[in-house]
Amino acid sequence: MKKGLLIIFLCISSLAYTDPDFDLSMVPAEARPPLEEIILDGTYFIPAIVISEPVTETLEPVITVPVIDHLESGRYYIQIAAYTTIDYAAAEIAEINSNLPIAIMNLGNEDIPFYRILIGPLEQEEIGELLDSIRNTYASAFVRLGI
Fold it and tell me: Which of 3, 11, 21, 108 has the most CB atoms around it within 10 Å of its CB?
């Protein structure tokens, strides 16, 4: 967790009033009390906003999920979604009940990735009730059998 003081200065120059192509920019200051006025190369820096509360950064927990290249023979899987980017697949996995056995199967290649999100491996007896429950959220979920 990072903490610090955020001070923002607005950059105001006489060019802003005379040149229509002038780009008005925000310049971050070092962590120090703001000054009344700073003049640097004819440009005035005036304190605009001072946030006195600490800035914090919260990291999300890392979820580890096995990436498989084939389905186990004779075992069942419920496919709930498929994505072309690992970021979308990871975001979806973060929303799923972590008590379920989740796996990702990449069927694509480097040029065209394709990630299936699967619940499993499961025994045949586990599928019925679990599939009904999953279809409350993922209406198009279906069962796959490993061959």
Answer: 11
